Amino acid sequence: MTSNSKYHKNYAEFGEPYQLVLPLNLEGLIPDDDSVRLLSHELEDLDYSLLYQAYSAKGRNPAVDPKTMFKILTYAYSQNIYSSRKIETACKRDINFMWLLSGQKAPDHSTTARFRTGFLAEACEGLFYQMVRRLEDTGELSKETVFIDGTKLEACANKYTFVWKKSVGKWEEKMFQKIQEFIQFLNREYLQDFSTVSETRTQDLQKIVLFFEGRCRTDNTVFVHGRGKRKSRKVKVAMNRK
């Protein structure tokens, strides 16, 4: 069945009564207890002098006020929006982002990308430090508890490899077992009373390191590593005996 409906960009072209008109003032559309109001209020009184210094006084004025850009970026992150293109879309369609812009033109994705990688780089740490201090002063932050979740951590061995917290814990236990075996070897060979327990393993291992450093200085033993380096006879004998 063929539809006779006409599609056109100008909805008022033929006088139909379904033209959508957004209010010029968005205050009535944002609830008083909305998180965007609280975020804007808390970020309003921060010191943005370092951020403004990143902009050249000789160039043209930024398309969006730097303070407003920081609010938009912070609110976007709080809503799990990280892509510069998605932030651009939100600024054009989401009334909360429009309310933050206060009538300013929505920044495109390249403006957002330049802001957070360039202009914000030097001032970011200071601004978030001010935010943490502000939360602490109002009693919203105790700093007494550290929370660890299941976030993936990027491994140093391979930048494309991620390590899960459960896997880290498993390998930590295996490493501790190897340390216990090594301690038994030390007690047999060097007639020392070394021991390690889970609660004080760091301090116990530091004592063992200090012991070996002293023995190396006494015996003039030098440990080497890397390609092209040859181990001394004493080091080879000690490793083979283990």
Task: Summarize the helices and strands and which ones pair or pack.
Elements: H1 35-44, H2 49-53, H3 66-78, H4 84-93, H5 95-101, H6 109-119, H7 124-137, E1 153-154, E2 162-163, H8 165-190, H9 201-219, H10 233-241
Antiparallel strand pairs: 1-2
Q: Can you give a write-up of this model?
A:
With about 240 residues, the chain is an all-alpha fold. About 50% of the residues lie in helices and about 0% in strands. It has ten helices and two strands; from the N terminus they run αααααααββααα. The chain has a two-stranded antiparallel sheet. The termini are far apart. The mean pLDDT is about 75.
Quick tags:
mainly alpha, two-stranded antiparallel ribbon, single chain
Helix content: 40-55%
Oligomer state of the chains in this structure: single chain
- Stretches where pLDDT is under 50 for at least 5 consecutive residues are none
The general outline is: elongated
End-to-end separation in angstroms reads 86 Å
Average residue-wise pLDDT = 77
Q: How are the strands ordered across the major sheet? A: 1-2
- Kindly provide the radius of gyration, computed on alpha-carbon positions and rounded to a whole number of angstroms: 31 Å
Tally of helical segments: 10
